[in-house]
Amino acid sequence: MTAFRTRRFEASDELELNAVFNQITRGDSKRPPRPIEQLRWLWYNAPGGSTDSWVVETEEDTGWRIIGHHALTPIRFTFGDEDWLCGKTMNTFILPEFRDKFLYLRFEQRCLREADARYDATYSIAPGTARLRTAFGYENIGNWIRLERGLQPLHLICRGVAELAGRYSYRARVGLLRAFGSISALPTRTPVLELEEYTAAEAVSSQFFADFWDEARGEAGMAPRRDAADLDWRFWKHPGFEGTTLTYSWPEGGRAYFILDNTAGHSAVYSIVDFYITPANPQRLDQVLDALFIWCAQRGALAVNFFTTPRGLPPQLLDVFIRKMKPSLMQRFEPAKELPRRFTPRGRGRGNGAQADWNATEILMIL
User: Fold this and answer.
1) How far apart (Å, rounded) are the C-alpha atoms in residues 245 and 232?
2) In this structure, what DSSP letter does residue 236 have?
3) What CA–CA distance (Å, rounded) separates 265 from 357?
């Protein structure tokens, strides 16, 4: 009979856990193996504190071996002037050969009971997770939609060729995307608005982000916190992140920013991994999106992507995105990503926040 045990993650587990994670994701052509530095960054450096992590082990002749895992990474949220802490499920798995021998759901339920005192809510992002976790009190608040704006002629053909190559080689996929992007930059156009560009080091120390969320949080509803420390951990100093931050401030008041990512094989497909505009003015959003598209096209981008949910933005802003960016054809061939959440007893006791929609961009998707 196979022997199992579960326990809290320890620092000495880092290398083994990361190796098992890379083992189960090695068939994914869209990302390279995860370096150990990225695990350490995610586990120990979040502004909300260290990740809660548990492992499942089986006993073998050589000793105990990790064959499963569950984790909750703390993500800071705000709801008006209230501060909330939510746990994002991370790297949840049981190796395939043990799935009919170990009752995983009971293990996760114990993890949740142990962590509930710390969090106001927990959530997950993955295909098919809502039904799996219904028994724990999770409710799907919307499937993710991927919007896309093509910037170059034949961008779908170029990307299709790169995707086919990526089935055999991650490097081939990246190389083809870079090649297509390098020969497709559009002639210079003059945008109506001039966006200010920041490197990661410049953004975290800029005056723009020093007080941005203090100004924006009052109208943001239930939203991931966007202090400089949160954006620095999630994006700017994230190991391997290669991106740009673009901002604009209107002379009469109001600000907007975009964080663009062109890593993980998307060298010629820029992703808007986070954005916020305050106040939520659709005419202004229309203007800054036009400026953003011109900026990306001038640098050889084939397309721009943006993820959100049907209720992840104020309706007047979502309407602008849908008008200027169409649902991605690529998403038709991918399983739907869900956004199930559950409120802990602590969160349910905090009133209206437990009924509010969540502001949703890729800031919720911790890799």
Assistant:
1) 11
2) I
3) 32
Cβ(274)–Cβ(362) below 8 Å: yes
Amino acid at 217: R
Q: How far apart are CA 24 and CA 19, in angstroms?
A: 9
Asked if residue 305 lies in contact with residue 324, where contact means CB atoms within 8 angstroms, the answer is no
Q: Are 191 and 296 in contact (CB under 8 A)?
A: no
Backbone angles phi, psi at 225, to 5 degrees: -70, 140
**For each of the chain's 367 residues, which pLDDT tens digit applies?**
689 999 999 999 999 999 999 998 875 555 678 999 999 999 999 999 999 999 999 999 899 999 999 999 999 999 999 999 999 999 999 999 998 888 888 999 999 999 999 999 999 998 888 888 998 999 999 999 999 998 765 555 445 544 544 454 545 544 444 444 444 444 456 678 999 999 999 999 999 999 999 999 999 999 999 999 999 999 999 988 889 999 999 999 999 999 999 764 445 789 999 999 999 999 999 999 999 999 998 888 888 999 999 999 999 999 999 999 988 877 777 888 999 999 999 999 998 888 899 999 999 997 6
Model-level pTM? 0.88
CA 134/CA 83 separation, integer angstroms: 26
Give bridge partners of residue 93 from the DSSP assignment: 69
Contact assessment for residue 352 and residue 136, using Cβ atoms and an 8 Å cutoff: no
Residue type, 192: V
At position 348, the amino acid (one-letter code) is R
Residue 252 DSSP class: T
Residue whose token pair is 């993890």: 111
Which tokens in the block code for residue 82? 């209230």
